[in-house]
Amino acid sequence: MKSRKLVYEGKSKILYEGPEPGTLVQYFKDDTTALDATKKAVLEGKGVLNNRISEYLMTKLTDIGVPNHFMRRLNMREQLIREVEIIPLEVVVRNIAAGSLSKRLGIEEGTTLPRSIIEFFLKDDKLHDPMVTEEHITAFQWAAPQEIDEMVASAIRINDFLSGLFLGLGIRLVDVKLEFGRLWENDMMRVILADEISPDSMRLWDVRTNEKMDKDRFRKDLGGVMEAYSEVAKRLGILNELQNNERKGPVLVK
């Protein structure tokens, strides 16, 4: 079997060279990190769940015309994606006060914000992903003004869609972290959604109980991380499929 060329390894995913030019294979690991990777663990099966959840949500976004890097799922842990030049920013859309917003501004966690707020953070673990303004972004050329406009417009649309989707499942979308990349097609370039959308990159609360169903369960030592991720997959209607695939073993051929 021909070994694949490693392109990049991050905290929760590995990127390999794809089968065709302009493609990559994205592998979802079970590794889990928090607090700038100072807290680490391996949660068996997390990569399988995140792969399938991200595939489901990216496909739904494609259906409503939101361009993204997802092409197709290859197996339980891998998906084929378009190769993009990642913009070194995290775009966070907040609907309810939680996490760093509550700490910075002294707003009680769980407070519904007057409107959705978009914040930018520089992707740099050594600097603890500092919050930056559009002025910083354009001054240091991390992204052009037009690219910022495209990311903001896309982020608003993604947030609106996901908020409605999850609300219909009894889940409140508290906030979501998005990453974008530049897709080059001949001499043309456009900004598209990249990375993943999963409980690793969203805060999800049960509408009735406010129970956390996301990575905060790991960050705050609440336990039940995999149970929470599985519940999200269950409500999305994809858990049974995952369980059936896991049960499949060797087939006896007569």
Describe the structure.
By secondary structure, the protein is α+β, with helices and mostly antiparallel strands. It has two domains: 6-83, Phosphorylase Kinase, domain 1 (2-Layer Sandwich), CATH 3.30.200; 85-227, D-amino Acid Aminotransferase, Chain A, domain 1 (2-Layer Sandwich). 31% of the residues lie in helices and 32% in strands. The protein is built from seven helices and 14 strands. The strands form three sheets. Strands 8, 9, 10, 11, 12, 13 and 14 form a seven-stranded antiparallel beta sheet that branches. Strand 2 (13-17) and strand 3 (23-28) form a beta hairpin. It is globular.
- Contiguous runs where pLDDT drops below 50 for at least 5 residues: 247-254
Total domain count: 2
CATH topology of the largest domain: D-amino Acid Aminotransferase, Chain A, domain 1
Mean pLDDT, all residues: 94
**CATH 2nd-level architecture of the largest domain:** 2-Layer Sandwich
Helix content: 25-40%
* H/I helix tally: 7
What would CATH call the homologous superfamily of the largest domain? ATP-grasp fold, B domain
Distance between the termini: 28 Å
The ordered string of helix (H) and strand (E) elements is: EEEEEHEEEEHEEHHEEEHHH
CA radius of gyration: 18 Å
CATH class of the largest domain, please? Alpha Beta
Total strand segments: 14
Report the major sheet.
Answer: 7 strands, antiparallel
Strand coverage percent: 25-35%
* Gross geometry: globular
Structural class: alpha+beta
